Amino acid sequence: MQIDLTVNGKRASLDVEPRLLLAHALRDSLNLTGTHIGCDTSSCGACTVLLDGVSVKSCTVFAVQAAGQEVTTIEGIGNADSLHAMQEAFWSSHGLQCGYCTTGMIVSAVDLLRRNPDPSDDEIRSGLEGNLCRCTGYENIVKSVRAAAKAMRDGTDRHSVRELMPLHPPAVDPPPSGEGIIPKQFQEANA
Amino acid sequence: MAFTAMVGARIRRREDPRLITGRATYVDDVRQVGTVYAAFVRSPHGHAKIVSIDTSAAKADPRVLAVYTGEDLHHAHGVKSSLPVAHKMADLKTPPHYMLALDEVRVVGDAVAIVVATTAYAARDAVELIAVEYEVMPAVTDVEKAAAGPPYVHASLGTNIAFTMPFAAGDTDKAFAEADVVVKQRIVNQRVAPVPIEPRSMVANWDAGMQQLTIYSATQIPHLLRTQLAVVLGLPENHIRAIAPEVGGGFGAKLNVYAEEAVVSWVAMQLECPVKYIETRSECFQAMIHGRDQIDDLEIAAKSDGTITGMRLKITANLGAYHQLLTPVVPTLTLLMAHGCYRFENISAEVVGVFTNTMSTDAYRGAGRPEATFFIERSIDMVAQRLGLDPAEVRRKNFIAKTSFPHTTATGLTYDSGDYETTMDKALKIVDYAGLRKRQEELRKQGRYLGIGLSTYVEVCGMGPSAAMPAAGWDSATIRVEPTGSITVLTGISPHGQGEETTFAQIVSDELGVPIDQVSVIHGDTDKVQYGVGTFGSRGTAVGGAALQLAIQTIQAKAIKIAAHQWEANPDDLEYRDGKIGIKGDPSKSMTTPEAGFAAFMGDNLPPGLEPGLDATRRFEPPNFVFPFGTHVCVVEVDAKSGQVEVVQYVAVDDCGRLLNPMIVEGQIHGGIAQGLAQALFEEVVYSDDGQLLTGTLMDYAIPHAEQVPHYELDHTVTGTTVNPLGIKGCGEAGTIGSTPAVANAVIDALAPFGVVHIDMPLKPEKLWAAMQPKSNGSVR
């Protein structure tokens, strides 16, 4: 079947089997491999994308159901030149380890903040109940979403990886005394 | 290390930009022209004879390129090799484990045939077209029934017992004869599934021109995989390239060599094209290794003051149907750690490994040590309960004193360093232990059941001295100072979430005085990196990082010779100071590592006899394991009406030596706690008596969601170690090892007013509710 849809702001025209899952269409037809697949029961949420701005598990949507709609994948949420506040927060708060669930988790969290811009920790936890993470124990994911919510409420600009790459600003999260004093030479080298 | 800048700081991870933007490459993201797709026909039975396999309908599908059965491999192609098991046990029974089942299937999910088709969907369709006729045979999944006699998983063995390992130290009979109290308990450490969110994934290609096999696999051990594939496939090892690209979690389950990796590689060799296989989650539950699954029959002898004097222990380990890479080794680690952080020296034990018609058990985060920590920490609580003593004080009474390290245990390990009392006191202070006990009393009067659980764990990791490992225990690092001053690190470990691209760069940045963004850490490709053993057993930094430190020393020594030559100075008068070469006591002159590297590249002004180039490869052979430790305190409230457990507070005070990046260490502890807590409360792999897997999807197997786990409060102490030059201990498994008993002890403590002594995990509401009903007392299953 021929379908037309918009993916990350670009028009796409695909010839798909009716049974093709949106997750596979994104990954295999459009090479958007940031959308991961972690289960076959719609339990893990690794494949979460936005469909017309609302989070869906793309393993539970047929590609044909997305016809005429706008899909946003992690690649469209932000990139190295322009990180979404949620991506930056996951980075700064160590909200990921292996990274496999992370892309779906970030997309879900973006949708969570759309619905609730100032969630409590409990609301973050219940809001992300459709996404499983096996590495982080969720502690730093909650911290990341909280940080992103604040940044978005404060209207913080997007940053590039290059801007953030040097060092974690020690003032944000001071290491124990005596640890992590960054010599001037490195600060200059990274400026 | 004289100079500390990056090390110890909370540096953002350098691997993260690609991960948070969806630009990382996991195995399923590898794109190669001409890729075909594999799927497996798997056994629906726990035990059956394969009567016939009709592949004709599948082969008639024009999208199907090939179908191979076990018989095809064995007879038509002469592939008779068995999958590897690494061990040093003299009497271990090792029945054949073919890459595709031959004549008989022994576990649900046993691979019976492989289908290769033009698309992944077509391959799955074709699986449905293959008709396998089975003659169902009696199966056994209960480990004690299997140990007692037929039916046999491997009829040729005439037994299900794979090995028996007796052990005795001290005079246990005397300890029991002189005991004031003996606590006896059977503890079931249930089977759990690792569930990395990325399932097993692989794509193999055969370059017929170069006679080269390349396999991308979601593995923790690319080099060991290469070695074992060479053996299994009969290929020269230097014609195999194994690549672990981005790997989506492992937890030990990817520390293995799987049948699928071998057969997909073999099929690629037949078809001369890339063959990709990505398992489904359902297949992952069936055919990826499981963890734990022991019955630990315990007797503890104690004096009336709480002093533990002896232990009798029988470990009955459910090995599953076949050995995977480390299957028989895991329960032996339980025995090694049986006495935890306590002094007693009289132990009489037996480990029995038993085959059943279930998936193989193997190394799952902690691998044998969580089982030991669970039963010894439960035992301490049971002794305290019996004697009416405080569990914290019973622990204090039995701790190995901090002045007695290194401490050789009755089971023959030498604990490097420890200070158990300090971590416990710190944790008890954070939770206000005395206040909590008072509150517990008050709440009980109101019919509310608060429970306080302690776990004071010690674990063995930094695997390990080669002499004590089933295979090599060392690891390697190469440092190259490139002509333009950037530094390349090639590490033999294979991180998959642990963050060594960052921590190793932190070390190099400090020691060689270059900005961290000038350091690249490369891993996981056998054609790029010198042989390394991999990432498991909390060894990545404790062993691989130590090798890196040795390589730094070699680089520094050579750079000093180069600087000395240029300055016409004696190398002995030079030193590395703040990351630069300088003259001792003279701050006027300095040379950077990149400057020395450039001189070494130019080669025209070097000391006579010194080779050009500034690079080094070093290997670290650990003289001992390392023994991180800590205290976890869990506070729960159990609802009397529903049996529901609420975790009210969770505090962990861990000691894994020096912290290279506290943020990453904390992340490891968080994740570890969640997995251990999940074993205590939620997770359980269940097989029916006839071998059906009843928990075969994420709908039936309960890995926790965000709202099912609490906030964790962490703190730490730092007790160094002299086992490695970094003074660090592993932290990957500590959280899992420490948390399970803390949670279980808390729940059982909550139920103490009901006379509950022990309840086996997972501590689900229905079990707890039943235990809280009138007339219910004592052990409840």
Task: Give a concise summary.
The complex is a heterodimer of chains A (191) and B (781). By secondary structure, chain A is of the alpha+beta class.
Topology:
The complex is a heterodimer of chains A (191) and B (781).
Chain A: E1 2-7, E2 10-15, H1 22-29, E3 48-51, E4 54-57, E5 70-72, H2 74-77, H3 85-92, H4 102-115, H5 121-127, H6 139-154, H7 161-164, H8 184-190
Parallel strand pairs in A: 1-5
Antiparallel strand pairs in A: 1-2, 3-4, 3-5
Helix pairs in contact in A: 3-6
Chain B: H1 16-20, E1 36-42, E2 48-54, H2 56-60, E3 64-69, H3 70-76, E4 104-105, E5 111-117, H4 120-128, E6 131-136, H5 143-148, E7 161-169, H6 172-177, E8 181-192, E9 201-207, E10 212-217, H7 222-233, E11 240-243, H8 259-271, E12 275-278, H9 281-287, E13 291-302, E14 308-320, H10 329-336, E15 346-355, H11 369-387, H12 391-398, E16 407-408, E17 414-415, H13 420-431, H14 433-445, E18 449-458, E19 475-481, E20 487-491, H15 500-512, E21 519-522, H16 540-567, E22 574-577, E23 580-583, E24 586-591, H17 593-602, E25 615-620, E26 629-638, E27 645-655, H18 662-681, E28 713-716, H19 734-750, H20 765-771
Parallel strand pairs in B: 1-12, 10-11, 14-15, 20-21, 27-28
Antiparallel strand pairs in B: 1-5, 2-4, 2-6, 3-5, 7-15, 8-13, 9-10, 9-12, 13-14, 16-17, 18-26, 19-20, 19-25, 22-23, 23-24, 26-27
Helix pairs in contact in B: 10-11, 11-19, 13-14, 15-16, 16-17, 18-19
Written description of the protein model:
A five-stranded mixed beta sheet of chain A has the order 2-1-5-3-4, sandwiched between helices. In chain A, α3 packs across α6. Chain A starts with a strand and ends with a helix. Chain A has eight helices and five strands. The longest helix of chain A has 16 residues, at about 140-155. In chain A, a hairpin with a 2-residue loop joins β3 and β4 (about 55). Chain A has helices at about 20-30, 75, 85-90, 100-115, 120-125, 140-155, 160-165, 185-190, and strands spanning about 1-5, 10-15, 50, 55, 70. Chain A folds into two domains: about 1-75, Roll (Ubiquitin-like (UB roll)), CATH 3.10.20; about 85-165, DNA polymerase, domain 1 (Orthogonal Bundle). By secondary structure, chain A is of the alpha+beta class. Chain B is an alpha+beta fold and about 775 residues long. Chain B has three domains: about 15-20 and about 475-620, Aldehyde oxidase/xanthine dehydrogenase, molybdopterin binding domain (Aldehyde Oxidoreductase, domain 4, 2-Layer Sandwich), CATH 3.30.365; about 30-135 and about 200-250 and about 255-285, Aldehyde oxidase/xanthine dehydrogenase, a/b hammerhead (Aldehyde Oxidoreductase, domain 3, Alpha-Beta Complex), CATH 3.90.1170.50; about 365-465 and about 625-770, 2-Layer Sandwich (Aldehyde Oxidoreductase, domain 4). Chain B contains 20 helices and 28 strands. In chain B, strands 3-5-1-12-9-10-11 form a seven-stranded mixed beta sheet, with helices on both faces. In chain B, β19 and β20 (about 485-490) form a beta hairpin. Chain B is globular and about 90 Å long. The model of chain B has no long low-confidence stretch (mean pLDDT about 95). At the A-B interface, α2, α3, α4, α5 and α6 of A face α1 and α18 of B.
